[in-house]
User: Fold these one by one.
Assistant:
Number 1:
Amino acid sequence: VLSAEQADAVEQYALAFGVQGEEWTQEAPWRWAQAEAAAFDEKHIDQWRRAAVAPVRTLAEALAAPACTGEAFIAAIGHLFEALDAPRRIEELCRAEPFETETHRQAWEKFTGLCEEYAAILADQSMPAAEHAALLAQGVEALRLKRIPPTLDAVLVGSIERSRHPDLKVAFLVGATQRQFPVPVVPDRVLTDADREAAEAQGLALSDRMTRRLLDRAYLAYIAFTRPSHKLIITWPCMDEAGRAVAVSPFVRDLTERFEDLHETTARQTHDLEATTHPSELAERLCLALGADGHIDPDRRRRAVVLLETMTIDGEAVFVRAARIVRRGVLYRNTADLPADLAQRIYAEPLACSVSRLSRFAACPYQHFARHVLRLEPRRVLTFEPVDLGRFYHQVLDGLFRRLQGGEPPRTLADLQPEGVNVERIVDEVIKELIAQEGSLSSLAARSQRAVFLLDRARDVLVDLVRRLIVMSRAGRFRQAASEWWFGEPSDQGPGAEPSGGPRVDLRGEGVEVHLHGRIDRVDVAEAAGTSDATGAIVFDYKRRDTRFSWTQFAAGLDLQLAGYLLALRSGAGPVGGCRPVGAFFMPIEPSGTQSLKDEPGSRVNRPKAAGVFDGDWAGQIDAECAKGRSAYYNFYVKDDEPYGDWSRSGALRPGEFARLLDLARAKIIELARGIIGGCIEPRPYRLGTQTACSRCDYAAVCKFDWQINAYRVLSTRDKRAV
């Protein structure tokens, strides 16, 4: 028997690597993690797995023959439950759930009784084990449990059609409308009543005639009206969801005609405290009256406050308990903060963090706290979702760069030809190596046809992307110098953190010191034009789809990725010594919705561009082919021999503006770091138009953000000139 922790470890492993079917009982040890083996104790997990499935293996061996008798099948099932010690476990379950004791015991007794009957009836009947299992499953589905109310005063919910009704004192007939009580009879469009009578005369029994079904409706109404011995309450809506009038059932109209002393009233929602009949109802109405969204007149609200105070001080025990619950709910404030001394112990200075962590804090301080301090992670389940596809793209592009650099002589993308099969061959080889190294990818490819399709489609996307990158590289003078390049040394090994061992990037200001760390997808370098001997560097951050640099999000600290990478290069931490940061771009991987993968390599029609910000003095090095108009590959416009046309939408900045951008990014990073060190963990997600930080947050169940109690941090839109 496994402990809860052992069972949880096995389950987490199985979900992470998609273990299915016969893989649970295979003889070979589980070794799916491969490159991720450090995250799982595979040796013990495999031992626990074998212990857990041992009874199932025994059952499979007992039923391995092509056919077996019913008696042998039930005997094998009995041995399984003996191995699992089922009776003792059911008793433990009954002690843990006393209110469900009768249900658990009754289910066990009925199942064992069914097995005994099955063994007796089909004792000598030989058939495959799968057929025995199907028959037994049908028997289990037909089992019905009796739920006996624990007290005499109980509320039962049931249909009128049930064969036996208990003795009822009061009955509530709900929804007695013309369309629902009883449900209208739909005439048969094929056979008339005369056809059915003729068939019955010839000995052919068909379904009931229309007359019989109409009589059944009347009988059901009779049952509903006559079962209660003391009181019958009938309700129906006056209108539907669209505000249209709803007709009452004709059977209700018959009642009003037969009995003159029936009273019809219209129920209305009321919050009158005097109308309550139970402490729990009183507590509910007090919450409605005193809650943040309560809409009652001030006089009633004051009366509710006085009543709550009276219940708290002078009330009976049952009312004191109700008042305590109401006060906790009404006075609840969904706030969070860290004492200064605790914050100092958690956040050691200098603060080591990534740009994405700072942006997460800017989006919502509590989201940052949940991920990087509490270190909460969503359960890992093996799927090939967009986030996994993005990681796959990055790994292939990194593998492509290393393959080109490892050749003799080393090559770059500009050395390849976009046409022909050479690009496809190289991409295919890199993908093949990656799948062989990644346990999760090989597991997906072996089990899921959908994953195979997605991998094939991703391969086509990558081939098209590499051809685009070749053409872009040839259009300018920048050449790739690094891939997946780490900088800084993270001190917080939270979710997703990796030790980099790269050059340190230190930022200081306002009494705060920050050590940035991160990983840049791609760095390209080029010599400056003219007589200057400076070396410029541009950064590419791969994105699945077309992504633009948002000045609003940059100013709010929500998107500091590109600017943070430029600061890392400016600190002297570039892959090539003495590099001067001159630009950073988001590079879309997948084509837009109107883009066809069959376009000719190098075609400029509907190609998503690299979008970002850069020093306009380097425009000629970035895209030497653009002498006038819009660049085919980047977001800038050449006008009057300068790249500052359509300036408000362009990524080009004048040298002074570009330097100012980096200074603004540095100041924002210092500001956010000061908030983290200060212990701010308040649930204050941003709101920008209809977009909020909560829309893609994994921690909603932890923070309990409620717009009726909490408030969004509303951001205003800012354009390039304003920033």
Note: Confidence is low (pLDDT under 50) at residues 491-500, 594-605.
Number 2:
Amino acid sequence: MTEVLKYSPALVGSDIPNLTSKSKNLKEESRPLVLLYGWMGSQPVYLNKYAQQWTQRGYNVFAYCPSTLETFFPPYRVKQINNKMLPIVKGYIKDHPQCQGIIFHCFSNGGGFYYSEIIHEMVNNPEFQHLHQFMKGTVFDSLPSLSMNAGLRAARISGGLLVYLFVKILMFPLMILFMGDHWERYKRNLSHEKNVWPHLVIYSKDDSIVTVDQVEILIDLLKNKTLAKKPNLYLETCFDNSPHVCHLRTHPKEYGESMDQLVERIFQHATEAA
């Protein structure tokens, strides 16, 4: 469907998820949409495993793998979002007016940065503000990292030594120029006061890139700011022994159960608001 966002339709014959209604007579075009944003330097072969988790459950999926370099260059992300990504999502909603909603599933800062900018555009850009009402839930997997040093460690792992040196030596001055108050803006968007829908935070005590203390900053913001009046919309799954963005591979059963709990909470939230 597009080279920017890879489209994976729901598994043929799969049940249509029920996120917003108690009715059992849901139509095909009402299937919810998942926006899957991978970690920095992620590859489709790995992100597809997460897409399959959703398509098997009856969701249509758009997926994107951020490159290592674009993760450190905010102007490129904003251009991608405004000129390509959100127009694609806007077109999808136009073609599927009965779509029950959108769930975001993002990984590490690579996916988190895109999520942050997309939420910002949904809230502030008149062209895309109507999409915000379709937001039903968010999965944060292995994020956020709120320091440049952690970002450099991730660049070393995802891109290898040459990419790491390129980022550190050549791009570091640009990063300082363009990042500005990036980290504060990042936190504000992840925990925006209008993001009142179920959030699932998945992280690990054994993550050497996004450490527990970094995740706890986001958890505190979600609990005491975004979802302060709706504490039941917050869910978390903390593992003891899975590496960065490897929680599904290490704990497949528990990971799937966490996804199902999020979907159940989305349904509960929708029916309570009805």
Note: The longest strand covers residues 135-141.
Number 3:
Amino acid sequence: DCLRLREDLLAGGHLVVIGGGFIGAEVTSTARSLGLEVTVVDPLPVPMSRVLNTEIGGWFVDLHRRHGVRTRFGAGVEAVDGESGDLRVSLTDGTVLEASTVVVGIGAVPNDGWLKSSGLVID
């Protein structure tokens, strides 16, 4: 995945990053340093506010914007259509973003259901 992403980023264009967490922030930073236009989309009004808090999440918003990143926070993604190099990202607020590359960094949920009967405390 990372080799293909590297090729796409080096080709330039507009990158849409779905997810404003740590992975999304790293990809965004790298893409901006390579000169790409970047838009970050996250359904939370303040990214990373579930992991950190709204104040620290706000710092990330300010940092992105100071570096020329467009942000669409508070809007989810309904669909990604098109083919590599010519993509459209439809948001829940009706906005459609054009992109040459889309990266989805929305985290993971651990599959710990099988541990419930183990007697271990799961927090």
Note: The first strand starts at residue 14 and ends at 18.
Number 4:
Amino acid sequence: MGIKLLDKYAVKEFLGPFVACVGGITILLISGYLFELSDLVFVKRVPFAVVLQLLGYRIPAVLTLTLPIGVLFATFLSLGRFVKDNELTVMLCAGHRLARFALPYLVIGLAVSGITLAANEHLVPYTNHREANILRRLVLQDGLPVIEEKVFFKDPDNRFFYINRVDRDRNLLSEVMIYVPNPESDFPTLITARTGEFRDNLWHLQNGIQREFDSQGYLRREVVFATLDIVTEEPAEAYLGKQKTTEEMNRRELREHIAVFEASGIKVDSFVVDYHLKLALPGASLIFVLLAVPFGFHSGRGGRFFAVLVGLGIVFLYYAATSIFRSMGANGILATGPAAWLSNILFGGVGAAAILWLERR
């Protein structure tokens, strides 16, 4: 069998399990989300059309998770069939290298990583934002505070607001940051407060500091205040479409917020880690191929059930490690860049080393 024909054969064997895995896992996750939304239909009497909108907006984010998992299992299952039928053994005995046999899978993994990255930059933030705005409107209809934790939003005067924690029972805000663009400087006026309240058009801040910076970024004036009232032009509901979490931003938007906070001396490690993860996580498809090729070569003889178990183990370990490293980076235990990329480096390194080891056997 020619090597180009082998590539086409490998891709053909890959596509069926890939579509089945992505479709099955996506349906499973969307069904779980639908179960979470059931109260909206039966308790709050939300029209089913609105629930369908929420499901539709959730699909792109779910696909960015299921696509890498689909790549992993499809690589396992297609390689497993080659191993089980001794086709891979015949090709290796004919002088073809394992790395060359793995090339179409690596190309697919790289392509899916590129698609996931593009979706995370241009589609997922938009759909996440639309979904979140629908949920915020439903919360507002219940008479609950609309201001959320760890969310950026902007008022008509181009002031940016951020609240780290919200006590909804007492309508209290904790760790409030407001930055106001300064027409005379590239650096904003920064207001931070330990606590505050938000009622209608009034922000009542307590125990805070107002800092002003010169054109070089050096502190020009610092005022400590016990209380400070800030009046906005619009009430809370006017900010519904302007609130954004990091999941509702692309890398450019998040970088702009990070730059302002860093220039003002505010520690934003958690945001910086999320910024790097927006680039690192889409690489999961390529990392999973690097792992699936050597493990699939050995696990193929164990059958599909064994391959699925190994695949589940890899998925769990990868995302658990990513979560742990993210937490370590957000809390200053690891540098923010390495914290985001460490899972890819470790798991990708293991996969590449395993392929090289098999090549030299």
Note: The mean pLDDT is 84.
